[in-house]
């Protein structure tokens, strides 16, 4: 079992940067697929970035098109931490950001594929 908690959200202006952190207080996340989702008011929860575990202790990182080149995902398995570095933020990035985890998820782009979720952290980007 994994317990997740996000932090690092806040209010930034357009073009600013923010780093979100996801801490796990349960089982190690080393072999879990980890993802960042976001949900804006009136919109569906969408995938932002995902890192999937593969054989040989390698990870594969993927990003939604709207954040490619601006956001970077990383993880520190020793500290059970998962990060989302956000640069060049835009107003459309405003949303509640959620950390999610799943063991050997099959469809990484779908929220339903993940078993564990954090409470979310608000990111607001002003014009």
What does this structure look like?
The strands form two sheets. Strands 2, 4, 5, 6, 9, 10 and 11 form a seven-stranded mixed beta sheet that branches. The mean pLDDT is 93. The protein is globular. It has 127 residues and is mostly beta strands. Helices cover 0% and strands 51% of the residues.
Count of alpha and pi helical runs: 0
Give the low-confidence spans: none
Oligomer: single chain
In one word, what is the shape? globular
Structural class of the secondary elements?
mainly beta
> Radius of gyration from the CA trace?
14 Å
Care to count the β-strands? 11
Sketch the topology as an H/E string, one letter per element.
EEEEEEEEEEE
**How much of the sequence is in beta strands?**
over 45%
Sketch the major β-sheet.
7 strands, mixed
**Mean pLDDT across all amino acids:** 93
| Helix content bin | under 10%
Distance between the termini: 40 Å
Short description:
The chain has 127 residues and is mainly beta.
Lay out the secondary structure.
Elements: E1 4-7, E2 10-13, E3 18-24, E4 33-39, E5 46-54, E6 58-63, E7 71-76, E8 81-86, E9 95-102, E10 116-117, E11 121-126
Parallel strand pairs: 2-11
Antiparallel strand pairs: 1-3, 3-8, 4-5, 4-9, 5-6, 7-8, 9-10, 9-11
Question: What are the key terms here?
Answer:
127 residues; mainly beta; seven-stranded mixed β-sheet; four-stranded antiparallel β-sheet; 51% strand
């Amino acid at each position: 079992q994994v317990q997740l908690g996000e932090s690092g959200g806040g209010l930034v202006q357009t073009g600013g940067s923010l780093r979100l952190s996801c801490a796990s207080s349960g089982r190690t996340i080393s072999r879990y697929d980890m993802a960042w989702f976001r949900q804006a008011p009136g919109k569906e929860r969408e995938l932002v970035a995902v890192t999937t575990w593969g054989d040989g202790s390698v990870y594969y990182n993927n990003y939604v098109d709207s954040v490619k080149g601006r956001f970077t995902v990383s993880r520190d398995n020793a500290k059970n931490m998962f990060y989302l570095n956000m640069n060049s933020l835009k107003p459309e990035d405003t949303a509640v950001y959620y950390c999610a985890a799943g063991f050997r998820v099959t469809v990484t782009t779908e929220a339903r594929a993940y078993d564990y979720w954090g409470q979310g952290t608000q990111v607001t980007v002003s014009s």
